[in-house]
Amino acid sequence: MRDKIVLNGELVESDKVALGVRSEGFSFGFGLFETIKFQDLKPCFLKEHLDRLKRSSDAISMKLPFSGNEILRQTKTLFEVNGVRNGIFKIVLTRTEQQDSCVLYLRDSTDPSSQGAIRLRLSSVIKSSQAFTTNNKTLNYLENLIEKRRAEEHGFDECLFINEAGYVTECATANIFVVKDGLLKTPSDECGLLSGVIRGQVLSIAREQGLRVEEGNILPEECVRADEAFVTSSGRGLVSVSEIQTDYSKTFATIGSKLVVSLAEKLRLAELTSLNVFEK
Length: 280
Fold this sequence. Notes:
single chain, alpha+beta, D-amino Acid Aminotransferase, Chain A, domain 1, D-amino Acid Aminotransferase, Chain A, domain 2, 2 domains, nine-stranded mixed beta sheet, six-stranded antiparallel beta sheet, 15 strands
C-alpha cells in the first residue's frame, strides 16, 4: 500500500528515489506542490490546481513538464497500482541537480472531509503580505507546520495568522471565512495568503447564489464578533469553526447555518463536476 510513486512520468518504487544533497530542492526547499483530493480514481479540481502550479512555476522559471491529460493518466496509474480509489495525493515540482523533477505520490487513503468543527488559535507569527512563499504553495512550509503544532499543543486544531498591518490572512493549511449579519467575508489576496482552490470555488458559488460577499481586510476582533466562521482546504473541503481564540475567545453558537450548509452542498456538486473536466 502506497509503495509506488510517479517520478517524471515513470512509475517507480518510493524507496528507490534519491535527491542530491547539493540540489536546491533538498538544500533550500526550492520547489512547489499541490495537495489534491481524489474520488473514484479521479482528481478533484485538477485543472484549477494545475493552473495555479503553472503560474507559480512560471514565476520562478521552473517547467511543469506534463499536460493536464498526461497528469490525469499518471494519477490513474498511481491510484490503481497502490490499490486505492479515494484519498489525497500530492504533486511536487522540485529542483534537482540535473533537472526539475515532477513527483506524484499518495498522502492519505482516507477522507478527511468528514471531520467535525475545528478550533482556531491566533499565532504570534506575523506573515509578510508580499513574500512569494506566502502567496504561492512552495516547499517552505516549516513556519506553518511549527505554528499549527503549537496550536495543537494548546488544544486547538489550527492556527490563524495576521500580516504586518495586523489583518487576518489565513490558517496554516486552510483559508478562513467569517459570516456577520448575512455578509460572507474572507481576507483579500492583497492581505498575503495562498489563494486556495476551494476558497475560489466557495466565492464563485456564493456570488452565483446572490449572497453578499466581500474580500477585504479583517481584524482579529472581527473574527470573534462574527456570527459564524468556517475554513476551506482541498483535502477537507468546507469545515465549520467552533471556536476562535485571539486576545479574546469566541465559541460560536451557530455552526452549520443554512447559508453554510448550502455552500457545502453546492461545493460538493462542483467537486463531482470537476472529476471529468479533462475527459470532455
